[in-house]
Amino acid sequence: MDLDKIYVLQTGVSLKISTIALQELIANAISKQKFPELEKIRSTSDLYAYLSVVVCEGAEDLISRRQRWIDQKIKADLIAGRPVPFNNFCNLFWRNLDEDDPDGDEWQQLMASDQFYSQLTVLLNKLRIAERSLQQYKGAVPDWYMGSA
Known about the structure:
Blueprint: E1 7-8, E2 14-18, H1 20-32, H2 36-39, E3 52-57, H3 59-66, H4 72-80, E4 84-85, H5 86-90, H6 102-111, H7 114-136
Antiparallel strand pairs: 1-2, 2-3, 3-4
């Protein structure tokens, strides 16, 4: 699964994992020349707090299949096409219950894939480059677009 690109699950649900919050964090650090929050991000799992999931199509079907685990806030965000925090979205899928739900099984496989981990590693490396640049060149404002290429 590629970050910031739409992926279509086998059930027809289309979604993307967005890095916009991380991009905004970096832009804010650059503009203020302060980066303490960047320093707190030390591993790929630390990035989860800055990722979100946007369901582009099929939200209603996804909600009906996951209704036992979905709260009203997430439900409203999914229906409106608003970002849902990555960790909250992941909590909709329980491994032992996914035998009846192909969305959950596919989501778990995507999150466990080498491709997803590689994407997070690249993102973490870009973050480290931004942090080092801020420390060394407090005035240079390079382009830090974090999307996958």
